[in-house]
Structures are given as structure tokens and as C-alpha cells.
User: What shape does this take?
Amino acid sequence: MLGTCIENVRKTVPLVHNITNYVTVNDVANILLACGGSPIMSDEPEDVEDITGICGGLNINIGTLNKSSIEAMYRAGRRANALGHVVLLDPVGAGASALRTDTAAGLMKEIRFTAVRGNISEIRTLALGSGTTKGVDADAADAVTEETLDAAAGFAKQMAGNTGSLIAITGAIDLVADAEKCYVIRNGRPEMGKITGTGCQLSGMMTAFLVANPDAQLEAAAAAVCAMGLAGEIGWSRMQEGEGNATYRNRIIDAICHMDGETLEKGARYELR
Amino acid sequence: MLGTCIENVRKTVPLVHNITNYVTVNDVANILLACGGSPIMSDEPEDVEDITGICGGLNINIGTLNKSSIEAMYRAGRRANALGHVVLLDPVGAGASALRTDTAAGLMKEIRFTAVRGNISEIRTLALGSGTTKGVDADAADAVTEETLDAAAGFAKQMAGNTGSLIAITGAIDLVADAEKCYVIRNGRPEMGKITGTGCQLSGMMTAFLVANPDAQLEAAAAAVCAMGLAGEIGWSRMQEGEGNATYRNRIIDAICHMDGETLEKGARYELR
Amino acid sequence: MLGTCIENVRKTVPLVHNITNYVTVNDVANILLACGGSPIMSDEPEDVEDITGICGGLNINIGTLNKSSIEAMYRAGRRANALGHVVLLDPVGAGASALRTDTAAGLMKEIRFTAVRGNISEIRTLALGSGTTKGVDADAADAVTEETLDAAAGFAKQMAGNTGSLIAITGAIDLVADAEKCYVIRNGRPEMGKITGTGCQLSGMMTAFLVANPDAQLEAAAAAVCAMGLAGEIGWSRMQEGEGNATYRNRIIDAICHMDGETLEKGARYELR
Assistant: This one.
């Protein structure tokens, strides 16, 4: 099932509009190409509606937001909603500054997101900030561990139910939930945290997976998370002596470039809760 | 002849001012260094005239244009024209949005470009948008193939004549034309399309080649196209098992870094039409 | 002693706020992760004070400055000063345009910098522009060579005394000075000049070293310079046939990723003047 999701990306070559940060944008573009998608970047308010219009999905990442790009996020988001397109939010740094928190919360109020992907702190900030899950279990505020897993999965499902968006919380253990089901995913390597932008890359790739699999949205999001983690494992297995995070970055994208449905199907490690 | 063009870049180390997109800018800078040039990036309207003034050439790429950078493009372009500098336009996404089409067309009207480099769709949009080639053969709208080659070469020459700019149309087969002659170039690999920014990199490098070869502008532009395609071939020949588009990107720039005149002369595959 | 400085970075994982150019920002983020720090990028004036507040250090790089980011530099700089944080200035292109020179000089007047790192031309421009060292020895204007070394070291110490900032002048020979002492550093490879952004990377890394070593600021700055040069040597020793500047870039960051205190201690080549 998850294997089919990446095959559908390669078959349909979804065009993804990215309003994303300038730190990791090149890697986002290359991983989108690697998985079979096609990236376009545009963050000028007067340009984004046209660009979103020709794409199948929109990936909004607030990593280096500014006044102009924030306006672009709203305009592109509204257009994407009007067209029924996939829209994903990556609330980078929500909780770290008032502008980031307010922007993410404001976008959540005004735009219908197909999926929201972030780390536990960012997602928790959003849950609180948007007022949807004020009673969130305090355990969910911590890193997702085997001990806090049930509480975290419950939080993810609750937030998915409240927001109507798929919720993807990535970390040592990854969670991908709709209101009913939560994928608990154990792919990946801790060394991925030493590379800038693996989260941003995943958000771009997840958008492509969602566009290419309209009838299996939860599975598509989970497949993207498994693919990224599995690429981290494959890339790591190919590391040679003396190689570090810069080369590892390339090896991960390379692994996505070669990943077929069968590899993903066999390598994905997940359970449902 | 083409080999001399890259040698002249290495001898004269042309300084190139790039107003370019933030997606591929790092690769543009590194390929400019690899071929023997020297890159400077600046897109603030109040900064660009000074920066253009100290450079030999200006590379304008509208890939992530915004209101401020558009103003910078006009200001830098006018200054470069006043100084008699090489100016190149890469109309990324012309045809994909009104702002991109209008910006590219507006720049074409107001700035004298030494060369314009894009894919067939972008160049065709410019040809129509600028009103210079309204009767363009419909075949030229398609991908350049062996079947459409004569029509496409004719279109490129006609547009070069109408605009006074060298026209470089890159794809599976590349064309580089002035009003009289058209280089038909068959270097390159299809896998280059899986890397973001090979076109942007070529535009940066072509600007350096044009600056370094004032008396052989058409040959310089063609040499840059051959060099990029040949680097794609050399880089591909060095790919190891499991490597994908991220590593391929590095191997292409590495190949430019090692390319001398003799390698380019021997590896360039072209004919004149 | 210098070895301890990198170990302190790995122990304390300093969070560094970077207002930096979009050309080399990804490499800056990855080298900060490689050395044990943690990067955040933000250049929106309304965001930077919050972000600086949660960080230990601020790295200001004017490489692709614009009106908005210039305002952000001042706001973040003032906040960092108020909080007693480390602040570093990388005056990219000072002397190349009026806006760059004025911005760097203006920042020097209004913000107290812990350190300023640039090439000799940029630093000399700042010295003159800020009016602190009008009589600077003309020899210091040239590249730092064995012949001009004493004059250059004297200039660096004088400027450090006048500005109250550590002064790091990098080139074939690197200088890192406070008012009393000047480290003369001979690590590095000439091929590093063919990679875009080794200077920007060093500035980011130096900020992390300064944050992690509050009681040994001069040594921390010198250690960062030695680490970068040594990584250039180690990375170069690992280059394989056909590899060029794109791969070299990765190998340098990889070398930082693996560098421990002992390696740095043994590999650092410096004297005090």
C-alpha cells in the first residue's frame, strides 16, 4: 500500500508550489525531483496565485517568513483552497517567536490544510495557539518516546479531528494521524538531525505524495514519512569513512532518487494505533 | 575555437553580477567559480548599480522574482547597458504566470540583452509576448526534436534577428543562434533534468563566457552550452551505484572545475544550421 | 587550549541566530550543525528580536543585504547587545558598493560587535569608513604576506583596540587579534577560494565558538579559524580524482563534523605576534 504511494508520484509527476525558506529550498527542490515530483518556488504575493493555479499542491513553510511572503502564503492558500488543491503547512519555529506563532495560527484559521507537519513543539504550539486542543496532555509536550507514545498518538488524532488536517509529528518516533488512526513510524536515523532541512524536505515530498494519491491521503502522508526515514537509513548505510553531514545530505536525496515501491514497502516500519 | 572560450574565462576571471533566484543560487556561484569566473550576488535596488559597475557582466534570472528584485533588474540592466556590459536574461517561468511573463517582456523592451537563455516554452512566450515573432511556426512550440529542428533553428535565428540578442534554447537538443547562424548542440544527459538549476547554472556560466570572449559572442554562448552538457556527460560517467540527483549535481560542477579547452574542444558535439 | 574550544561547542550546543545571505546560507547552517552548534535563520525585522532572544549569539552577514534585512540587522543587534550576547559582523562586499560600506560602517557605530571577520579589503574599508584608523599602514591594504605580516598584525591589533571587537582577517594567512595579541594562522588550502561561502561558514562557526567559550574569546575566534583551515586541509586530502569544488565543499563540512579537540589541537598551525 505505502509502496504504491511513491509509484503514483513517479507516474503522475505532481507539480508542487513551494513557499518555503531560503535555507533549505535547494534540497527541497532536489528531493521533489528525486521522488518523481516537480517543484516550483514563488513567494511574491502578485505571483503566487497564478503559480498555485498551475500546480497540484502547495507547500507552505514559514522557516524564513517575512511580511511579503506571509501575504503570499495567505493568497496562495486561499487560491489553493478554492481550487480544491492539496495544501500543507510546515510551521517552522512556531513557538520560537510571536510572529511565527501568530502566522502559523492565523494560517490555520483561514486556510484549510490537508496536512500539517512539524516537530512536537511546533505542533503543540499550534494546537494551543489555535485554541483547538487546550487540554492537551502534558506528556505530549515532551519528545515522543515509547512511554509517551499513546498519549502523543491520542493528541495527534484529537488535533486531526479538531482541525480537519492530517497531523504529522516527526522526531525519533514519527506520528501521522487523522481523527481515527495514527501511524507510528520507526524509520530514520538520529544522525538526520545533524542535517539542516530534513523536515523541510519531508514537507515538500509529503505534498507531492498527497497530490498523487487523492484517494489515500493518510497513507500517502505516512508513506512520505517512511520514505524519508528509510532514505536516511539507506543513505547512512552508504556512508564512507570520514564522511559527515554534508555528504549524508546528498546520500539521503540520492536514496529517494532510487527508491521504488517495493523498497519502500519492504523498508517501512510502522504500526497503527 | 570553443575550447579557447573556456580558456579565456580562466585567464580573465570575469566578475559576474547575478540577480538570481534563491533556489539555485549556491550552485550558480559554485559553477561560476568552477569555470574560472567570480560571482557576486545582489538584488537590492539601491545596491545593484554599484555592484554591476564593478562587474563585467550581469545575469538576470527571474526564478523567484519579487517587487524589489524586479526593480533591481531594471536598474542593474540599465546601468549595464550604459556601461556596455554583457547582460543575459533567464526568463524562468515566463508563461507560467502573468508577473513572470510581463517582467520578462518588459525587461526585453527596456534592456538590450546580449543573450537570452531559456527552455522552448519560455523563449516562445517571450517571442510572442514581446510581439517580435507573432507568426512563429507552431512546431517551434513543441520540444525541439530531430523532426522540428529546422523550424526551431529558424525560429531562434528569426528571434535573434528581431531582438538583437543571442537566443539560447536548451532542452534535449540545444540551440544557440544569432540572426545568421544556429549552433545545434547534442551534448548532455536526460538525467540533468532531475537536478534543480542546471539551466540557472548554465545562464551564470554563459554570462562569464560572454564577458571573457568579447570578439566571439556566438561561439562563447555555444561553448558554455557545450561545456554544461559535456559536464553532464562526464559527471554521469563518474556516478557510482546508489548515487542519484544530489550527487550528480556535485559531479557536474566538479567536471566544469576540471574542464580545460582541449576537453571541451574534443567533447563538444554540434553542427551549424 | 584551542582544542577545548571546539569541545565546548559540542558540549553546550550554542544556538546561533544568523541574518545572512541566501547564497551560502545552507552551508552555514550545515557547518554550524557539523561543529556542534544549532542554527536559526531569520531576517524579518518583526521576527528577529524574538529569535535573537532565544539564541546565544548573532551572526550578521551583509552578503545579500536589502532594506528589510538591514533593519533586521539593527534591531537584532541592539537586542543582542542589550542581552549581552555574542554578536559577529561579516561585512561581505564592504568597499564594493556604497550601501554595503555604509551599512557595515553604520552597524559598527551602533552595535557593539564581539568580533568582525572579513578579508583584508573589507576590514580595511571598515577601518577607514568608521574613522578609527585613518592612518592605517598602506601595506595592510595588500594581501597579507610574510612581508606585510607585521604591519598587518599591527593594523589588526590597532583596529581591535579602537573598536573593542576582535578582528579576524582571513586570506592566505589568517589573523585574529585583540588589542594586545594577534594569532597568525597558517592552516587552509588555496583551493578553498574556489568554493563559495567558506568565509560565511567560518563566520557562522566563529559565532558558535565565541558563545561556547565566554572566558576565552580570542582563543575561541582563533580556534574557529584554525578549525576551518584544518578542515580545508583534511577535506583536500580526501579528494579523489575528478572531484572539484562542489565535492570539496562537502568534504570540508564533513571534516568539521568529525573534528574533535585533539585533532584541532594537533592540526592548528599558528603563532602569536
In short: Chain A has one domain: 2-272. The radius of gyration of chain A is 17 Å.
